[in-house]
Each structure stands twice: as structure tokens, then as C-alpha cells.
Specification:
- The protein has 2 domains: 59 residues, DNA polymerase, domain 1; 280 residues, Aldolase class I (TIM Barrel, Alpha-Beta Barrel).
- The chain is built from 12 helices and 14 strands.
- It has a 10-stranded mixed β-sheet with strand order 3-4-5-6-9-10-11-12-13-14, covered by helices on one side. Strands 1-2 form a two-stranded parallel sheet. A two-stranded antiparallel sheet has the order 7-8.
- The protein is globular.
- The structure holds S-adenosyl-L-homocysteine.
- S-adenosyl-L-homocysteine binds next to strand 10 and strand 12.
Amino acid sequence: MTDQRPVCLSDLTLSRLTDYVKGMGQPAFRAKQIFKWVHQKLVTDFSAMTDQPKSLIQTLEQTCTLAAPTIRRRQQSKDGTVKYLLQLADGNCIETVLMRYHYGNTVCVSTQVGCAMGCRFCASTQAGRVRDLTPGEIASEIYTAQKDTGERVSHIVLMGIGEPLHNFDNVMDFLEIISCPEGLNIGMRNISLSTCGLVPKIDELAQRKLQLTLSVSLHAPDNTVRSSMMPVNDAYPLEKLIPACRRYQKTTGRRISFEYSMVRGVNDSPAMARKLADLIRGMGAHVNLIPINPVDGSPYSATDEENVRRFRQMLEDLGVNATVRRRLGADISAACGQLRREDAQQAAQQGNA
Ligand code: SAH
């Protein structure tokens, strides 16, 4: 039986698109042209591909689709940050954020609809994971932000909704598409991937030897505290995670950065700073500190900024590089995943009314 579902061409890497186009009896150069239309000129309509024969356009229209999310909500912060709620073809919504830094525009992409990891401080995971995003859907988040602002996107962080390493194959294809010279050609060194610490997948990623930056969401230097914040720590506790980070650095030659969201009275004491320094000293790793964004229904509150600064200074004194992450877009919506959740709650209320 043949699969009658339309193929989303946005999901195909250039080599897969080439196979697909050849399978249609077309020459390989058509694949390159179509790839450029989708991933460089960012069209979402086959009819806009003016160098393609009419008959091919007709066939593509009948058998294929292109990822074309719609902007359901758009919020712009005073600091220029733009936060989008994007609606996908099946009606699911995700969040995408564009941040303006002196070195260029960075887009923070979601990789799943919801998340299965269950971190207790995170809004994205409260209703669980609905589905994975496809490679083309992830890329289309960047394309939508670039087209909406009319400004080039130069950097990407995979730090939106979802656990990128829990959607490994699609994320790898996305990285190939987005760094392809026939596409937006965003260099791996301008891409950061953040994980809650899925150890086998960190090892698998290391084998790819990509030049991206791996961020590991550490948040606590001991298992009791980390497990209380992140259930994933029960499966991959620190004595597994930290050696995996060291292996990653050795295999790829790239330094890891650790995310550390500071929660009042939980992970922000001087004793925690010492434990953290003992855990990662000598790795040359970098720690990003950020006061936690309090989420409804979570017991956590943020460490005050003064204490964050003291914690940072202690780490530095103990030989660990640390910065306090600048918070952008604080006035438009706090923690990641909150816009999607708000929207779902409003829809539920309207449905009940
Ligand atoms: N699943 C991946 C990437 C998405 S979250 C991961 O866990 O790393 C991106 C970062 O935001 C992670 O470091 C995550 O722990 C952090 N984060 C999530 N909710 C937060 C909140 N309410 N306040 C501060 N940081 C948060």
C-alpha cells in the first residue's frame, strides 16, 4: 500500500529532497532550486517558484505541502524582543522568540509541542508532550520571525518549548537544513542546543562532532536538590551526567555551558556555589546564572538579583567562569511556555462559557 499523505517538502534535507525529486523523474538540479525557494527565499507557495515548469508545480501542489505556520499572537517588548505564538497546520501552537543582541538577531525555537521531561519550574511541561516538531516546522519558526521583522536572523538557540534531544532525528535534520549553504546558511558556531541532560543522547550528539554550543540545564550541584527540581535526574544523575559532559568536550573539542536557574532557598546558598565549583572545576565550562521565572502552580520563587551577583562572584573566586544572563522581554511574558499555556487556558475558558 502506498502512503497517500502529502509529503512536506520543508522537512527534507537537500540530499533527501534530491532523492525525492529524482524519484519523480526530475533532474537533480530541480531539488537545489526548490530547496532554495523554501529555505533561502522563504516562500510557502509552490506557485511562487517561478523557475519551475508549470506541470511540476501542479504535481507538487497535489502531492506535497510546505510548512507555513500562522502568527496567532505577537508581543513586542520595549527592548525589541518579539514573542510569537505560532499555529501549526494541525492547529497545535508553539512559541518562538526573537531577541536583538549587539551581535545580531537570535531566534529561540521550540522543538516539540509541549514537553515530557517534567521539570517542576517549567511552564512548557505542565501539560506533557503532545508531539514532536518536524525539521521543517522548526525551521519555519525562524523563517516566520525573519519575514515578520524583515531582519536577518544570525543566531539560533534551541531553548524554547520541548527537549531537543528527545526529538533527536528531527533536530539533526533541522540543523542540517538551517546550516545548508543553499538555505539560510547559519553556521553551527552560531547555534546553541540546550538539554536537560539525556545522557545517551549527549553521547550520540558528540559522535556527530558538530561545532554547535551544548548547554546543559544543571540547576543544582547535588542529586537530592536536582532530582527535586528535575525528574530526569533520577534516570541520569550527576555521576552519569558530568562524565558525559566531559566526554562531549573531549570528543567535540567544544566547551559546554551550564544553565543554572536560581531558586530562593533551594539552590542559591554559598554551600551550593561551593558544591557547584567542586563539581565542574577544571572543565573550562561556563555557567549561565538566571533568576528563575516564577510559574503559576510552582512552589519556586526567584533569588534576588543581589544574591545572584554574590553567587556569581563566589563561583569566579572558586575558579569557575560565570555570567548573569540578561533577561530580555521580561515585560511581555515571563518564563518560556507561558504564552502557549495562557492561550490554551483562554480557549478552555471560552469553550466552557
Ligand atoms: N529542554 C531543554 C531546553 C528548553 S528550556 C532544557 O531543559 O535545557 C531552556 C532553559 O530554560 C533550560 O535551562 C530550562 O531549565 C530553563 N527554564 C525553564 N523554565 C524556566 C523558568 N521558569 N525559569 C528559568 N529558567 C527556566
